[in-house]
Write a structure and sequence with these properties.
two-stranded antiparallel sheet; mainly alpha; 14 helices; 76% helix
């Protein structure tokens, strides 16, 4: 009798736990809780991570990755994936540096051109995927290689350091506001606006429907191709913004910038609430997702883990977190 009562209590507790996880998942709060938990655990092991300098450094360092992942999440909501965003980040960084230094364009013109070009790259990807009825994985993998090649040609394979005009760009972009650079706050505002746009507009509702079931969306009369093209365009815009943040941080357009970020962007998106099946997620989730990856890397450095093993260890951490999320039917 006592055993049955214990089993009933245990089942009730598990049911309550699952319901709590589902509530947090439905409101996109779970990624933030996971991020906070990891920060707390790592901070208890290494108290230096609680310092104001360490927190500010984490946020500013993670900003380019946050912006790129926000674009990736938008594409993943539509049930697609974009492997060209990292290459677009590197290209945008080099293009911005070149426009300021080689062509002598004013900062405002250079920024506008870079953002437009980034959006255009996304638009072309979406057009080929949507109208060509091709797999987004293959299309964006190809465009990633093309962008890397164009970046090398444009930069002649060397970095483009910012001169006098570029120094003004750096001073403005890295202006400290509440201990964080201006590019962080600009990115945060734009991500919030994008999240509200997806949550509160007809486009957002249709995008979730497309990711949930493309067949059902088409049967319902939704313009699937247009929805997907717009998602890729927004992703291209955010990747260009990420490139500008990267340029502001390092002061030089480097042709190999953001190399290897493809998997980090996808990992941050999944940790931030997106799903390969589509239909779930929110750009805001890129913030805790990217921060978790940065925290893991910083923690490994603090522990003195060999640099060659850090990437392997980070991958193991990501897999463990992903498995934990899957057990709670995360994002569904």
């Amino acid at each position: 009798m006592q055993l049955n009562e214990n089993q009933t209590v245990a089942k009730s507790k598990n049911k309550i736990l699952v319901q709590v996880i589902q509530v947090f998942s439905n409101h996109n709060l779970l990624p933030w809780l996971i991020c906070a938990a990891i920060f707390l655990i790592m901070g208890l092991i290494s108290p230096s991570m609680f310092s104001g300098y360490s927190i500010a450094s984490t946020l500013s360092t993670a900003t380019p990755g946050i912006l790129m992942s926000a674009g990736e999440i938008i594409v993943m909501i539509a049930g697609s994936i974009d492997l060209s965003l990292a290459a677009s980040v590197g290209f945008s960084s080099v293009l911005a540096a070149g426009l300021m230094e080689k062509n002598g364009l004013p900062i405002s013109f250079a920024i506008i051109i870079v953002l437009l070009v980034g959006a255009l790259i996304g638009f072309i990807n979406g057009l080929v995927v949507g109208k060509g009825k091709l797999q987004s994985f293959i299309v964006t993998l190809g465009s990633s290689v093309v962008l890397r090649g164009i970046t090398l040609v444009y930069s002649a394979g060397t970095s483009i350091p910012l001169g006098l005009e570029g120094q003004t760009f750096i001073k403005i972009s890295t202006y400290q506001l509440l201990g964080l650079p201006l590019y962080f706050w600009v990115g945060l505002v734009l991500i919030i606006l994008a999240s509200l746009y997806i949550l509160k507009t007809k486009y957002g509702r249709h995008l979730y429907a497309l990711g949930g079931s493309e067949l059902a969306a088409r049967v319902a009369g939704l313009k699937a191709d247009s929805l997907r093209i717009k998602a890729f365009t927004l992703a291209g815009f955010f990747s260009a913004l990420s490139g500008l943040a990267l340029l502001a941080k390092f002061g030089s357009g480097w042709p190999q910038a953001a190399s290897g970020w493809e998997m980090d962007g996808i990992a941050a998106s999944v940790l931030g609430g997106a799903n390969f099946a589509g239909g779930v997620g929110l750009p805001l989730g890129a913030i805790p997702g990217a921060i978790v990856l940065d925290l893991i890397l910083r923690f490994l450095v603090t522990l003195g883990i060999d640099p060659y093993w850090q990437y392997a260890a980070k991958g193991i951490f990501v897999i463990i977190i992903a498995l934990s999320l899957a057990r709670g039917e995360y994002g569904r």
